[in-house]
Design a protein that fits this description.
There is one protein chain. This protein has 347 residues and is of the alpha/beta class. The chain contains 14 helices and 12 strands. Strands 8-7-6-9-10-11-12 form a 7-stranded parallel beta sheet, sandwiched between helices. A 5-stranded parallel beta sheet has the order 2-1-3-4-5. Helix 2 runs parallel beside helix 13.
Length: 347
């Protein structure tokens, strides 16, 4: 009988209590044995910077086949990996978008697979993106305010996109969130355009969308949705020129990060009254209670909360999926690759 692989967890007590749901642990235990290295410190995007924990983790990795990290872990660098002769895969549950807990180059040099499941929070945001698109297509922000003011039903001076069916939808970014949103959009028989310079050229044919320029997204789409991550390369990417390319009666939705968009330019265009907007994010956040964006009628907003209801266990479920694939000899889905790193750093 083949011995089960050994998985070591390295994270805080809070992660242990909230991410490792028993049902999913049961799935893991059919595949592997596991142990937990308790460690504290750091934040969602930071390692604990604890030298003692790093030394202790190095010892614990001596007989581990897999390592799963999250909040509280020290930096896993070349010195920590020095004695990990059996280690074949490292997984980050959440928050390693910029490799703050894993020296990826050191792992790659040792032929160790690196994956992360940060997308556990992307999928519920995709659901909310669809909801915001539908609301904005009907100018729901204005309709809600009219109802609260006691007004009778009034025909909008601008129809905006109206029904979503058959429209052209442009996605700015096509990572986990964008690809999941595509699945939700398909029943509406939409024509999907995408701008994302990091995509493999084979993907448009495989997923049936048109890969195009940012300008084409803004000038030809009825609905434009920003799902691009905030990186040095995307900060302020959607500026006054791009926003003013939006067609009259079109819809703009942002569920990624507020700083990807020039807030002043967006407000100026919203005030023209010829577009309908859905915003899950804004810059600054939290939005000051006296900010002008809160007074504009053709905007439907939510307070950057669409991933807040997701169970932390969703990240662990995705990680166990990855471990099942990996130890069965299949290809993993959520690898950190040189292209991933370039995308996240905006290089």
């Amino acid at each position: 009988m083949t011995e089960k692989p050994k998985i070591l967890f390295a994270f805080s007590q809070r992660v242990r209590d909230t991410y490792l749901i028993e049902e999913t642990l049961g799935r893991l235990e059919k595949l592997a044995t596991w142990d937990w290295f308790a460690c504290e410190g750091g934040g969602i995007y930071d390692n604990s910077n604890n030298v003692e924990d790093a030394a202790a983790l190095r010892e614990r990795l001596a007989d581990a086949d897999g390592l799963v990290l999250c909040h509280g872990s020290p930096m896993v660098d070349a010195s920590v990996l020095e004695g990990a002769k059996q280690l074949r895969i490292i997984g980050e549950l959440e928050g390693d978008r910029f490799a703050s807990r894993i020296d990826i180059d050191a792992a790659w040099e040792r032929d160790i697979r690196v994956v992360d499941t940060t997308n556990g929070s992307s999928y519920p945001v995709s659901e909310w993106a669809l909801a915001m698109i539908l609301v904005a297509c009907r100018n729901g922000g204005t309709q809600f305010l009219r109802m609260r003011a006691g007004e009778k039903r009034v025909r909008d001076p601008f129809p905006f996109a109206g029904t979503l069916v058959g429209k052209r939808v442009g996605l700015i970014g096509c990572g986990h969130m964008g690809r999941r949103l595509m699945k939700y959009l398909r029943p509406f028989d939409v024509d999907i355009y995408v701008h994302d310079p990091y995509l493999p050229r084979e993907l448009p044919e495989a997923l049936d969308f048109t890969l195009t320029s940012l300008d084409n997204i803004f000038t030809t789409c009825d609905v434009v949705v920003c799902v691009a991550p905030l990186t040095p390369g995307t900060k302020g990417m959607i500026g006054e020129r791009e926003i003013n390319l939006l067609q009259p009666n079109s819809v703009f939705v942002n569920v990624s990060r507020g700083a990807v968009v020039d807030s002043d330019a967006l407000i100026a265009r919203i005030k023209k009254g010829d577009i309908s907007v859905g915003l899950e994010v804004f810059d600054p956040e939290p939005v000051p209670p006296d900010h002008e964006i809160l007074t504009l009628p053709n905007v439907f907003q939510s307070p950057h909360s669409s991933s807040g209801g997701v169970s932390r266990g969703a990240f662990f479920e995705l990680m166990v999926d990855e471990l099942e694939r990996f130890f069965a000899g299949h290809e993993t889905w959520f690898d950190i690759t040189p292209n991933t790193v370039a995308n996240r750093k905006g290089t």
